[in-house]
Amino acid sequence: ASESESDRKGIQNAPEKNVDGVEWAESKAVEDEDGGGDVENLLKEEEEYGEENDFSADTAGALKWKEDLTQKAAEAFLRQQQSAPNLRKLVYGTVAEDADEEDDADEELGGLFHVSRPDKESKQKANALDCSKFPVETPQDWDLDEVMNSIRDCFVTGKWEA
Amino acid sequence: MASQPHSLSYVGCNFLRQRLVLSTLSGRPVKIRKIRAKEENPGLRDFEASFIRLIDKVTNGSRIEINQTGTTLYYQPGLLYGGVLEHDCSPHRSIGYYLESLLCLAPFMKHPLRIVLRGVTNDQVDPSVDVLKATALPLLKKFGIDGEGFELKITRRGMPPKGGGEVIFACPVRKVLRPIQSTDPGKIKRIRGTAYSVRVSPQIANRIVDSARSILNKFIPDIYIYTDHMKGTSSGKSPGFGLSLVAETTNGTFLGAELASNPQGQGTAVLPEELGLNCAKLLLEEIYRGGCVDSTNQSLVLLLMTLGQQDVSKVLLGPLSPYTIEFLRHLRSFFQIMFKIETKPSHEELQGGEKVLMTCVGIGFSNLSKTIK
């Protein structure tokens, strides 16, 4: 009896998964334009899905691993998103010069006085040292074995993949 | 020119070099305002003025206007001319500061550039001539810039604050650049380096070598660090010492790191052993970042990819430096080119940190002023 139940469950689940799959593909496609929005959508979906699934929490058996597939996928996607910030957005999204344009605009007040706001961050950046070097911010302790092991395979003495 | 292209406007003295270089290559004039406008000593500094003079020397017909306080600079680029030149660099920045920009411009001159640069060869701020020689030159070779007349020679070494070094840089010209596909850095097969000392005991270089080897030998046995002790007139005007290290891979990738002693009269004295150890650790950090090009040359490789033939170029880099990120934005404003940027998480363990894959299609820049013989 439990087997047929879970079978039915599988059939019920199938179209749902399909729908999710389509949305998944779409969200992947538009990922470049608005990565943030998708994540929110996914989060929403994830919540809804969780609620729907509650009734089948007692279903036991071989197909149990299938139940939270979308949720797991969503979680994995989110994890990936968080660990790898969208570099394209970082580089081409907001440019520091925009901020400068803005404070040009509201600099004049009544044509005679102008507000001098010490915008430390952008001013320092604009007049900072022009140097191509990329200093290491948090040096690792290269005396530790695990740190040394982290680059072990960069050398010919390390492991080679087949 | 019939119609002058619209000029670009920037604020502040940061990234001055890349702005002027990209302006020269693209032919778009730039205007830079508010250069240190709010500082006690406003305007352009000596070393920037020297840089602008250098740009004026290698080009023909550039128009440069600077206002009285030096806070505004207008630059209308001329044609890259090249030829046999010499230039006295300001001792406030090392020759590397000037050389980095020359490396970007030299392949596109009308006549092959052969220039003598005088000043500081090694300091703590900019990439030194040693490192550029070991990392940037092989990189240019990948793009097809090669041949007999391609060299970078240190004839005299000069340390800050007084300098007195001399470098000869010669580069052939090319009509077009070859696109590159550099996505596999390969494995590090050897480490080379130069421990230099001027106007101090020659023993110091040996002490640096020993301490650097002690840490690097744990990874690879093939290490050779040359000791370079220059004497007399070729030792410049100030004492100092330092170390530059370069790791070479099986695929011809060069990763560099360096350290120099504190300039005379500034800061506390540095122990040679400590310097060697710290420099070796910096090299390990650079290896951890990884990629097919090291962090100092990221912007150079991206520029050459942009200017390549109309074909896809790919390169794997370590994390992008702030300088490179700004350079990418500038490439977009000057050449309307955007890179595809993909992060590659470190799948295989033990191969360092996260990498970035940069892809673009070259704009098909060709050196029209190169004379056909």
TrEMBL record, chain B:
Gene Ontology cellular-component terms listed: small-subunit processome
Domain (RNA 3'-terminal phosphate cyclase): residue spans on this chain: 11-341
Subcellular location: Nucleus, Nucleolus
Signal peptide stretch: none
Gene3D superfamilies the record matches: RNA 3'-terminal phosphate cyclase domain, RNA 3'-terminal phosphate cyclase, insert domain
Cited CDD domains: RNA_Cyclase_Class_I
Annotated RNA 3'-terminal phosphate cyclase insert domain residues: 183-287
Sample GO molecular function, one term: RNA endonuclease activity
Annotated GO biological process: endonucleolytic cleavage in 5'-ETS of tricistronic rRNA transcript (SSU-rRNA, 5.8S rRNA, LSU-rRNA); endonucleolytic cleavage in ITS1 to separate SSU-rRNA from 5.8S rRNA and LSU-rRNA from tricistronic rRNA transcript (SSU-rRNA, 5.8S rRNA, LSU-rRNA)
Main location (coarse class): nucleus
Keyword tags: Nucleus, Ribosome biogenesis
Transmembrane domains' residue ranges: none
Pfam family, one: RTC_insert
InterPro entries: RNA3'-term_phos_cycl_insert, RNA3'_phos_cyclase_dom, RNA3'_phos_cyclase_dom_sf, RNA3'_term_phos_cyc, RNA3'_term_phos_cyc_type_2, RNA3'_term_phos_cycl-like_CS, RNA3'P_cycl/enolpyr_Trfase_a/b, RPTC_insert
Known partners and oligomeric status: Part of the small subunit (SSU) processome, composed of more than 70 proteins and the RNA chaperone small nucleolar RNA (snoRNA) U3. Interacts with BMS1.
Function in brief: As part of the small subunit (SSU) processome, it plays a role in 40S-ribosomal-subunit biogenesis in the early pre-rRNA processing steps at sites A0, A1 and A2 that are required for proper maturation of the 18S RNA. Activates BMS1 by promoting GDP/GTP exchange. Does not have cyclase activity.
Stated family: Belongs to the RNA 3'-terminal cyclase family. Type 2 subfamily.
Entry protein name: RNA 3'-terminal phosphate cyclase-like protein
Source organism per UniProt: Terrapene triunguis (Three-toed box turtle)
